[in-house]
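Q: What would this chain look like folded?
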Amino acid sequence: MLGCALVAPSPPGSLPPRLPDFGTPGLGTPALGTPELASQRLVAHRGWAARFPENTLLALEEAVAAGARFVEIDIQLSSDGRPVLFHDRTLDRMCGVGGPVQGRTLAELRALACAERPRFGEQFASVRIAELPGLVDLLRSHREVFAFVEIKRASIERFGAETVFEAVTPLLEPVRAQVALISFSLPFLAHARARGASSPGLPLGAVFAKFEEREQPEAIAIRSEFVFCDVEGLPAKGALDAKPSKLAVYEVADPALAIDLVRRGVDLVETFAIGDMIPAIRDLEARSR
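A: My prediction, written as structure tokens:
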């Protein structure tokens, strides 16, 4: 698996490339396993969500400390239009109270523990829902880290694409070289692409449950820089090619599967278990030499 140059880790304080170069997909891609490549290919899905409450600043900080160069987070708006990091449509699982994120003001959301008590009990009772400016501060402190910011459909349905776009993108301006907007909502991505037509816009990523969904005319028209696909929706075997888009696959917790996916052409692999996967992949590669 030789012949492709790796992207060297960015020195402290330097900016990463706007669109990271992963070399040629498929058999020409270097094997996952070196410390640099393991960090580069893995995306911390909602931070280190296997060990800490997902989408919190704690989960993101721990993911970066574990070696993540890529993180993925989810964005929804509070009832007063403020962007917070939250995946579920309702607050039940993470905060232990009912109702949607969009049903509470930012002040009300700040009062809630984001402790994910069914998994962690009282261990993280002091952790709160993260806000988008907190992610921006994290990225400004770690210029080598690139973030995929997923805009959730619940907020788009409630507020509309333009309102959500305007609530999120100005806050991302200080770290625009370190972020891409992604979503399951093709209409939102089309809107974002149109808004960036007259000036350089943020890179975009279309998220799909099944690999063949990327061939929809609406998806092709967006020309997204990234395609994200559920691992369960991939073809069982053979090369995986989403060119000209970079291909990311979620959710993967098996190091051997991650290696196989990269060898098939996947550019990025999302995992909840970032801090466990990096050393496990290194170990597998070392034992295969």
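Residues 227 and 247 are 5 Å apart (CA to CA).
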